[in-house]
Task: structure prediction
Amino acid sequence: MLPQAAPGLGYFVSAAEMMPCRMTGGDFYEYVPLDDDTLGFTLGDVAGKGAPAGLFGARIQEIFLAQSVRLIEPAATISEVNNTLLKKSLESRFVTMLYGVLTRDGGLSYCNAGHKPPFLITGDGVRRLETGGLIVGLFDDAQSEQEHLQLQPGDMLVVFNDGISEATNRDGEEFGDDRIIECIQRDVGEPRAVVEPVH
Result:
């Protein structure tokens, strides 16, 4: 159910990968071509494991796709996904999400709903994208915010979930955010080269 490749709009290069850990899960990502010059993208992380989380993740993808095309603005889209899930009364099911909208002129608007803050790598250094709101699907009074950034040629955005940063070695040591940054900076400019070491 995941996209095979990002839409080829010609003004960005992307790469994505998902590897389930031992069993089916509810993590998902999606691309949404909003028009010839605008791309929406999301990464979601459903609480829990197994088939129930997978089914819930598929349902959220469906809701997200319907709302993103209708609303476009990240904060409004996240809020509507939240409202729709609450109407379904799905107890103990929630999701963290990052939704961004990228335009041909380098504009990036995003809303981070409780998700692991992505890294934005620019000529000025590394920053985290934290603007947003609460996790999706639990709170009926959740307020979402969004931030607009102007990207420059060569900037890189890395969106990931805690399955990477919290992965442990045989000694129980977590991979951690610092190692993610090291991988990004070592291979900056080549999205596929950043993603492939996941294997």
The radius of gyration is 16 Å.
